[in-house]
Specification:
The structure holds two protein chains of two kinds. Chain A has 17 helices and twelve strands. In chain A, helix 9 crosses helix 12. In chain A, the strands form two sheets. In chain A, strands 1-2-6-3-5-4 form a six-stranded mixed beta sheet, with helices on both faces. A six-stranded mixed beta sheet of chain A has the order 9-10-8-11-7-12, sandwiched between helices. Chain A has two domains: 206 residues, 2-Layer Sandwich (Cytochrome Bc1 Complex, Chain A, domain 1), CATH 3.30.830.10; 202 residues, 2-Layer Sandwich (Cytochrome Bc1 Complex, Chain A, domain 1). Chain B is an alpha+beta fold. The chains are: A alpha+beta, B alpha+beta. The interface between A and B is large, with 84 and 82 residues.
């Protein structure tokens, strides 16, 4: 359930490659044809046929995510989602598990910042059973008391256990500190304190308010006939009733002014994990493609400026990267790396030096050409499977984006000039206003990192929760 | 409980490729093969669904071929394969590849080192030029060696020091094996990382990187003819030489339980149990996988139902088994709930194992396991990189990629009696090693 740090180009990078320049004209990348239907009850249905492998994927989006959690009950959306399969009107949790496992399928849920995500996969020959299971969890959960208590007890333990892995909790600390514990600064899966406050009544209320047809998108992609699938979907979901929920309000927070630093003390740490940045851009930001190009040069591939400096040239770390998470409202931008305790300031100084160099030198023609080629080359395998495509069209629908995100990607990437890159650097890569979050051994590194910010906060990793809170 | 595949790294996770039977219809795809004059075998599968190519090279060398004092050298060498050769100097390989739309990665395991390139078809010839350059003419720049030593040390601090599972896994293998080289970590012990020399690296290169010690798999928007032509031009002229000497050490039979304890400050304890099982190409492979699926796969599995759902003493329980050329271990990983004695989790796992020995699994469980293996096969086959990895894995670990097409038959042939037999044969008390991570409340307490 917890978010892993995105270490593009360094960790967890298993993406592949792409459109050859020689064939780019003949074979420009297009998203496969798909259709959108809005049922009478307001449910949005997206269907995309993709044959070849006999698998079908369903991606559901319910337009209420972690930001819809009541203050102090962070983790409510995630808990409600995880309970969908834990008892329905006709199945116990155990029966649901037995039925989905028997067909070799899966059904997963999670809460993202802006929405709740449901995903299922099954073989084409099992499409009737697979869809029925998906619908059963979405439409008929009963939230049995025993299952609610069981899940919450497990979640509290997980929230503690995850702190044994600094990489897994870095983003929770970073977001919490960056957004001051508001809006996107609240933990999506909750923490040791907030999960204990969640009651069954609140879960049921959250479900009844937010899980309505007009508040939901269902995308199906894979080996099926669209016409037949549409009929099935209408049969299964057409009778679903419920009023649309009011749109959530996100407490918009602008970028942090000045510099501040949070040191999370982990006394047995041999390395310091650090992130540095500020509030970045939203999913629909008009500069998003240019930001992607510049960030590819700066920190989103192996030969990025950051990884070249901190890993390739100096051997200070296994990886250094940067990312922009793009949500409904501006998400975080961060530089991310780690290094042994003794070289903590050397590595952070170097990261700041690279950031400065980006501002002073800009992006040259060769860097720009290489980044464009890399993005175009790496993109096609990201839409290779029905699982990827179902998720992609559902999230486009949610964020108000369209097929041009794919079909025009090459043209938009090619349109980025050194001049545009320069503007994007000035606008979206903060230099004076920066938030630092470090997880490391305070007794060894605290004095040295004082130089980065006047405002300093510290907390023990064993302290419950993620953000320091308002004093 | 699995380690993500990370750039230039250690392969510790299950190789899902081997758990997968092919479908019954239309899944026996054509693979063109050719053995070059220098002994390298090349396998090609055309797939024009995206204009991309996945090229994997499997070298039959890993930590299994190492010696005490230079443990981890295979993995370190893997890093050095990106740090400069004759034509493409230090840093150039990555720069040229990325500028042409490609990317790369690699992983080192106990038995193999695998290099992966993903690129647009327009970059195909360039990739062959790069691969040939580093197989033929790798250079060893002392400065690069020193900086890469720092990178690998950082990797070890990240994977072992900052991961309870990584730390405990290392102790588990070191205890389960007393003779065979599987006992040391693929990453190597920290003191070995600090001390290996340029001569060690050169020996490693000469030993492991013979073309006749490698298998190349290419899947994607290419034809076998064009790939074989590039092979003749770039790869075939590289002379063959002696492959690594055979690993002759055989792990003696374990005759009693072994235990390891790690004490450190942590939020939650951790439990791992290893059982010796045969190498991948053993006929019991399929029955063992069916047993593992019934016990551990999904929330309907016996272990989840018992430990997580009913008794509520664990947050998660899983099992891993690596592909292996020599007899290996099956590893059970359980995350106890807070306040639950790991001992309680351990005895409950044994109860479930005993149940699998005493009575046959049900028809439904057996069929479920076979259905899951079928679906997993398609998941593996849905991408060009998944197919490249699967074809190569079967070729190396079963000795023939065509075993992939027999897997369905072999899984369907597994009976309830087979499942019961392998449970009894391999999951006994004398054959197990137990590693526990026990909590120390503060660093001070951890000191003797």
């Amino acid at each position: 359930m917890n978010r892993e740090i995105v270490m593009r180009g360094v960790l967890a990078l298993t993406v592949m490659s792409a459109v050859g320049a020689s064939r780019a004209q003949a074979q420009r990348l297009q998203i496969p044809a798909h259709e959108k239907t809005v049922l009478k009850n307001g449910l949005t249905v997206l269907l995309l046929e993709k044959h070849g492998v006999p698998l079908i994927n369903v991606a559901g989006i319910v337009k209420a995510g972690a930001v819809a959690d009541p203050t102090g009950q962070e983790g409510l959306a995630a808990t409600a989602a995880d309970l969908l399969r834990k008892g329905t009107k006709t199945r116990t949790a155990q029966q649901f598990a037995a039925d989905i496992d028997f067909i070799g399928g899966f059904f997963d849920t999670s809460a993202a910042e802006d929405y709740t995500s449901l995903s299922a996969e099954f073989l084409a020959k099992d499409q009737g059973r697979g869809l029925e299971l998906f619908a059963d969890a979405l439409l008929h959960p009963t939230f049995p008391k025993e299952e609610v208590e069981k899940l919450l007890a497990q979640s509290v333990d997980e929230a503690k256990g995850v702190k044994d892995s600094p990489r897994q909790v870095m983003l929770e600390y970073y977001d919490g500190y960056l957004y001051g514990g508001k809006g996107y600064g609240r933990p999506t899966d909750g923490d040791e304190i907030t999960l204990k406050r969640i009651q069954r009544d609140a879960i049921v209320k959250f479900y009844e308010t937010n899980y309505t047809p007009a508040n939901t998108i269902i995308a199906v992609a894979g080996d099926f006939n669209a016409e037949g699938m549409k009929k099935k979907i209408e049969e299964i979901f057409g009778g679903w009733a419920g009023k649309a929920a009011a749109a959530e309000k996100i407490e918009a927070t602008g970028p942090v002014k000045g510099k501040r630093l949070l040191l999370v003390d982990k006394p047995d740490a041999t390395q310091t994990f650090f992130s540095i940045g500020n509030v970045g851009i939203a999913a629909n930001d008009p500069d998003r493609v240019a930001v992607r190009v510049v960030n590819t040069v700066f920190g989103a591939r192996f030969t990025s400026m950051l990884n070249e400096a901190l890993r390739v040239e100096s051997g200070l770390t296994y990886g250094a990267s940067s990312f922009f998470l793009q949500w409904k409202e501006p998400g975080p931008f961060a530089i991310l790396s780690f290094t042994k305790n003794e070289t903590t300031t050397q590595a952070i100084d170097m990261a700041l030096e690279v950031l400065k160099k980006l501002h002073t030198d800009g992006v040259n023609a060769a860097q720009l050409a290489s980044a464009k080629s890399y993005i175009k080359g790496q993109f096609p395998p990201s839409i290779e499977t029905s699982a990827q495509l179902a998720q992609l069209i559902a999230s486009h629908e949610f964020y108000g984006l369209n097929d041009d995100e794919v079909n025009q990607l090459e043209a938009r990437v090619d349109a980025v000039t050194p001049e545009i890159a320069k503007q994007v650097i000035a606008k979206h890569f903060p230099q004076e206003n920066l938030v630092f979050v470090l997880i490391g051994k305070a007794s060894e590194i605290a004095p040295a990192v004082k130089k980065y910010a006047e405002k300093q906060d510290t907390r023990a990793i064993t302290a419950p929760g993620y953000w320091p809170g308002e004093k | 409980m699995k380690t993500g595949r990370m750039r230039r790294t250690v392969w510790m996770a299950v190789c899902a490729a081997l758990l997968t039977p092919p479908a019954l219809r239309g899944q026996e795809f054509p693979v063109a093969t050719k053995t070059l004059k220098n002994g390298m075998k090349v396998l090609v599968q055309s797939d024009h669904s995206i204009p991309n190519v996945a090229l994997y090279i499997f070298y039959r060398i890993g930590s299994r071929n190492e010696r005490p004092g230079t443990t981890g050298i295979s993995h370190f060498f893997e890093h050095m394969m990106f740090n400069g050769a004759k034509k493409y100097g230090p840093g150039e390989l990555d720069k040229v590849m990325e500028a042409n739309g490609g990317s790369n990665n690699a992983y080192t395991a106990r038995d193999v080192t695998v290099y992966q390139d993903w690129f647009p078809r327009s970059a195909t010839e360039l990739i062959f030029d790069i691969e040939a350059d580093r197989i033929r003419d790798l250079s060893f720049d002392p400065k690069k060696i020193e900086s890469e030593r720092g990178v690998v040390a950082s990797e070890r601090r990240t994977r072992i020091d900052a991961s309870n599972e990584g730390l405990l896994d290392e102790q588990l293998w070191a205890t389960a094996f007393i003779a065979h080289p599987y006992q040391w970590p693929v990453l190597g012990w920290m003191s070995d990382i600090e001390h290996w020399t340029i001569e060690d690296l050169k020996r490693q290169f000469e030993m492991g990187y013979a073309p006749n010690n490698a298998t190349m798999v290419v899947v994607g928007d290419v034809t076998p003819d064009e790939i074989f032509a590039f092979c003749e031009k770039y790869i075939e002229p590289i002379p063959q030489h002696a492959p690594p000497p055979p690993v002759t050490t055989v792990e003696p039979e374990q005759q009693g339980e072994r235990r390891a304890v790690v004490r450190k400050p942590a939020e939650l304890p951790l439990l791992m149990i290893a059982y010796h099982v045969p190498q991948t190409n053993n006929p019991d492979f399929y029955a063992l996988n069916v047993l593992q699926t019934i016990l551990f796969h999904g929330e309907s599995s016996r272990m989840y139902q018992r430990l997580v759902d009913k008794d509520q003493i664990a947050l998660a329980v899983d099992s891993e088994s690596e592909t292996a050329l020599d007899p290996t271990v099956n590893v059970i990983v359980a995350q106890p709930k807070e306040g639950v004695d790991p001992q309680k989790v351990e005895t409950t796992i044994y109860e479930e194992l005993e149940r699998a020995k005493k009575a046959a699994v049900s028809d439904v469980e057996l069929q479920k396991a076979k259905n899951i293996r079928l679906a997993e096969f398609y998941r593996q086959m849905r991408t060009i990189s998944g197919r490249a990895n699967t074809i190569g894995t079967y070729e190396v670990f079963f000795g023939d990629y065509r075993r992939l097409f027999d897997a369905a038959k072999n899984y369907n042939g597994v009976t309830k009696e087979d499942v019961q037999r392998v449970a009894t044969k391999y999951f006994g008390a004398n054959n197990r090693t137990v590693a526990t991570l026990a909590l120390e409340k503060s660093v001070e307490n951890a000191k003797p």
